[in-house]
Design brief:
- The chain is α+β, with helices and mostly antiparallel strands.
- About 20% of the residues lie in helices and about 35% in strands.
- The chain contains 2 helices and 7 strands, in the order E-E-H-H-E-E-E-E-E.
- It has helices spanning about 25-40, 40-60, and strands at about 15, 20-25, 65-75, 85-95, 100-105, 120-125, 140.
- The N and C termini lie far apart (about 30 Å).
């Protein structure tokens, strides 16, 4: 599988089609470690993350997406800061409206990125208490996250 919708390797903000894509500074800082843990090339991980983030924003009709985290297996409860294990996903914040999405993928460490697919997207509207909106979400995803 090819992932054509990505920024140049040295850019962390730009436009893909009509959608603005930008990385949060903390996500850029974590990218080398995310790649190491996923056992994949960092530049390739950046590209596939942007591709899936762009696809999610496009599906929802959004004009922008901020990548808050590439492939990772944890989640942080924003109510109390508690970190817990979670299915492999990408975290993004979209505009307008600032819905947050976890894009769930079928990746396991060492798996070739060409075999990665999205298995679900849980989309949570701002101030929704971590409960995914079933009219915006799709596929397989956990019932609640923060």
């Amino acid at each position: 599988m090819s992932f054509p919708n990505h920024l140049p390797a040295n850019l962390y903000q730009g436009t893909i089609g009509d959608i603005t894509v930008r990385w949060k500074a903390s996500a850029i800082a974590r990218l080398p470690e995310d790649a190491r843990l996923a056992e994949v090339d960092e530049v390739a991980l950046k590209g596939v993350t942007e591709h899936f983030a762009h696809a999610c924003a496009f599906r929802l009709g959004k004009t922008g997406v901020q990548i808050m985290g590439s492939f990772h297996n944890i989640t942080v409860d924003t109510a109390n800061g508690q970190v817990s294990a979670h299915a492999c996903h990408i975290t993004v914040l979209m505009v307008p409206g600032q819905p947050k999405a976890h894009i769930y993928i079928n990746h396991s460490p060492g798996m070739a990125l060409d075999h990665v697919i999205v298995v679900g997207e849980s989309v949570v509207l701002k101030n929704a208490g971590g409960i995914p909106d079933p009219t915006l979400s799709m596929g397989t995803y956990p019932a609640v996250y923060r």
